[in-house]
Amino acid sequence: xxxxxxxxxxxxxxxxxxxxxxxxxxxxxxxxxxxxxxxxxxxxxxxxxxxxxxxxxxxxxxxxxxxxxxxxxxxxxxxxxxxxxxxxxxxxxxxxxxxxxxxxxxxxxxxxxxxxxxxxxxxxxxxxxxxxxxxxxxxxxxxxxxxxxxxxxxxxxxxxxxxxxxxxxxxxxxxxxxxxxxxxxxxxxxxxxxxxxxxxxxxxxxxxxxxxxxxxxxxxxxxxxxxxxxxxxxxxxxxxxxxxxxxxxxxxxxxxxxxxxxxxxxxxxxxxxxxxxxxxxxxxxxxxxxxxxxxxxxxxxxxxxxxxxxxxxxxxxxxxxxxxxxxxxxxxxxxxxxxxxxxxxxxxxxxxxxxxxxxxxxxxxxxxxxxxxxxxxxxxxxxxxxxxxxxxxxxxxxxxxxxxxxxxxxxxxxxxxxxxxxxxxxxxxxxxxxxxxxxxxxxxxxxxxxxxxxxxxxxxxxxxxxxxxxxxxxxxxxxxxxxxxxxxxxxxxx
Length: 494
Ligand SMILES: Nc1ncnc2c1ncn2[C@@H]1O[C@H](COP(=O)(O)OP(=O)(O)O)[C@@H](O)[C@H]1O
Ligand SMILES: [Mg+2]
Prior knowledge:
The protein is an alpha+beta fold. It folds into 3 domains: 9-213, Heat Shock Protein 90 (2-Layer Sandwich), CATH 3.30.565; 228-353, Ribosomal Protein S5, domain 2; 367-485, no CATH class. The chain is built from 17 helices and 16 strands. The protein has helices spanning 9-16, 24-37, 67-74, 96-102, 138-142, 174-192, 194-197, 258-263, 266-272, 314-317, 330-353, 385-393, 399-409, 413-421, 432-448, 456-464, 473-485; strands spanning 42-50, 53-60, 107-114, 117-124, 134-137, 154-160, 206-209, 212-213, 228-229, 233-236, 242-249, 275-280, 283-289, 303-309, 367-372, 375-380. It has an 8-stranded mixed beta sheet with strand order 5-4-3-6-2-1-7-8. Strands 9, 10, 11, 12, 13 and 14 form a 6-stranded mixed beta sheet that branches. Strands 15-16 form a two-stranded antiparallel ribbon. The longest helix has 24 residues, at 330-353. The protein is elongated. The N and C termini lie far apart (89 Å). The structure holds adenosine-5'-diphosphate and magnesium ion. The site of adenosine-5'-diphosphate has 20 residues, from helix 2, helix 3 and helix 4. Keywords: ATP-binding, Nucleotide-binding.
């Protein structure tokens, strides 16, 4: 026997408020996704305070919907997430319009027009009775618009009783909270849709918020002539989808104007926002994370990697309902890790050139020990400053790297083990001169990259975390201090 057991309409819709993890910006972004899919070239967002409420309108000039489409669009779970989508479709679950809107407001009204006909439909979560939905036609529907339609077709999504738009806990007045919320959401949308706003897509998109047009925020500063574009990579997944990876190294802070720094979130934001920038159909879904492939902060703060996903990899990446998150498939982890290692060297050298210490959490050792599949392998640390500078110098030919690999691969292991058993091995520098010449080489490297400026304290800070100086610190420090003036012919802080 089977019995019908549908959910209670009002309970399910109340739950839908917390599907995904929408904040205001993410909710707006999800609606803009729909507008893009509907071929809109403009999206105008307005916030109108009304008593203690705020009415939010998101209007586009897209294709609009006829009555049947509107009814389906308003239906919870209006599509099957497993269905294949057009390659430019930013939707997935058939929930976006509903759950994004209800995450911010208790009432969702959609007014839509095309072919001279206008319709509207509404869900009010305090007034849902057995899935019956309010619909309005013609002049009634039109009266819901604050301004008459300006395009042949289009859609206006209206949020009322917007109880979650404002974060009132911060102790600000209503007006201040609203201003704050709008500024924050605008900033986020400028970033999330920057490639659309900049016209990198088939159709340029214009987004305005309360009449102010959003300018794109390019997290890679590609227009800046000090931005380094590193080699791009392409990864093919099992189902034939193509993922492209494009690393960038941002200009050093000192090369940016205050305004440029601010647009990137200020110096603090630049650190926090290092990492991968993952785009799905050119729309930014996640940013500022290394997916735990590398500890945060260990890599250069200036490295950002653009990862472009088509919407055909949604299931592998486990795109979440609010599209604010995705998880890295295991198979791709290793490839990305290799990519990160390689370009990080470049980014590191940008810092070094300015003579700025990276404040690495750990010492940069000469050798690294890897354990993989139960096997142990020693590798020369490509990020060690001396090694990195050699590799940088030789990055065109790759000879230095080939030599390192040669040394690593053909280490005389058998002889070494036999000797080590008899405790006859001593690899330490045999004389202080040898050690001093190492420091000297480091000074030269440091000078080369520092535009002729030499700060003894900066240099020492830099050496502090580098093997072998870190382990022989007292000696290193006194040696450097004694010699900066004399032997190396420079005054303190020259
Ligand atoms: N602004 C819009 N213009 C035209 N059609 C829209 C608009 N917003 C939503 N729709 C329609 O509503 C459907 C459901 O949207 P949504 O709930 O966001 O789910 P999804 O985007 O996953 O399909 C869309 O597939 C589209 O047909
Ligand atoms: Mg959608």
